[in-house]
Amino acid sequence: MLYQPVDKSNYKRGAKSALFAHNSMQLEVQRVDPDGTDVETGVLGRLSDSLISQQKFSVEKYNIYKGSQSLDGHHGSQPFIVDAEGIPEINRKPSMTNMTDIVKSMNQATESDSGVFADLFSDLFLNSLHDNKMLTAALSNAKISTTFGDDSLGKAFEMVAKIISTRQLRGVDRDIFFIPHSNWDAHNVVLWNLNTNLESLDNAIGAFSKEMKAKGLWDSTTIIQSSEFGRSLEPNGGDGTDHACKRVLLNFSVLFLILLLCQMNSYHVCCLLMMIVIFRGW
After folding, report:
1. How far apart are CA 88 and CA 204, in angstroms?
2. Among 107, 182, 266, 273, which is most buried by a count of CB atoms within 10 Å?
3. Closest CA to 261 of 57, 77, 30, 75
């Protein structure tokens, strides 16, 4: 993310972040906070905060496959992390049949001299156990009618569709999802990479669109694609392209802000690619 005008001669000293470093720029695009006013949050987390504090909505946030700063905020529950199979089961092979009860008992025990950090850890841990159980039960009954691809992106969108189908059981007004997707850094054989990745993206969004339309939810879904930076127009020596400043942004709902802010009684989903964000309004 650029904070001021820069060119080839001064970008190293004129940019606050490493312009062409993947990890630095991914963090910047997840934050979208050029002035550093709230550095521990992400752009979607702040959006969720506004929905909760100003609109009084019930909002849940989901990272698919791995965590991200994009969903970090100050209000509401912590983001879930789910994989293609759902939320990971805690202690799948316990050494004792009543292991969960023992763990709960240990973390519920409080003494007058208990440490504040230990108590906070126990509270967060017990809440995680409860949320894990509730979401696992909800997803066990999730129903979808569309066949998704078996690659990572297809499975990610399939899981998003399943979570959305449990919205009424979870009692939420808005859902926000973050889906990472890599392998776009085509320094070599760019045409093969693009053909492969775009086919995967097309199939995944096509299946997701079909499922949302079948549920009558497509008009209240927003999908936004973003990336850390763009590619050079000039090819390199390996039939590929190198890093460049401009990045591509796709928005699958031009009415995103209107839908988000004005449809007060409907459910919304937002999905982000690199970032894939999904807001949903019922």
Report:
1. 23
2. 273
3. 57
Neighbours of 27 (CB within 10 A): 18
Phi, psi (degrees; rounded to nearest 5) at 281: -125, 120
Q: What would you report as the CA-atom Rg of the chain, rounded to the nearest whole angstrom?
A: 21
pLDDT digits (tens, 9 = 90+) for 176-228: 999 988 888 888 888 888 889 889 989 999 999 999 999 999 988 888 888 77
Task: Output phi, psi for 104, to 5 deg.
Answer: -60, -45
Amino acid letter at 123?
A: D
> What is the rounded CA–CA span in Å between residue 167 and residue 139?
10
Angle formed at CA 278 by CA 17 and CA 34, multiple of 5 degrees: 20
The answer to whether 164 touches 267, Cβ cutoff 8 Å, is no
> In the block, which residue shows the tokens 């409080």?
110
pTM: 0.82
Integer Cα distance of 134 and 136 in angstroms = 6
Place of tokens 């066949």: 147
Name the residue with higher pLDDT: 275 or 203. Answer: 203
